[in-house]
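seq as requested:
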Amino acid sequence: MRVFNDRHYILEEAIIGDFAIVKGWKADRYGNVMYRHTAQNFNPMAATAGKITVVEVEEIVEPGELEPSQIHTPGIYVDRVIQGTFEKRIEKRTVHS
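struct tokens:
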């Protein structure tokens, strides 16, 4: 516990792991990563927390193909980029009368 301006605060140590393994949507060869949907919530922070960061993406593009304003994790934080194979299931509900 520490006191700042006469107020008491509880401090905790940062969570830092050896590896951060995250799933992205697109990345270039330099490790700049884009995420989709709810992966944008926590994955950018998780990618910066590891000493070694591995990102698995659906597509690897050439440098310059990603819009700089759309990059969520800069390549400086990424050590390895892996292109995974993903099964995209579409569920269809049918009702028999």
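The two ends are 65 Å apart (CA to CA).
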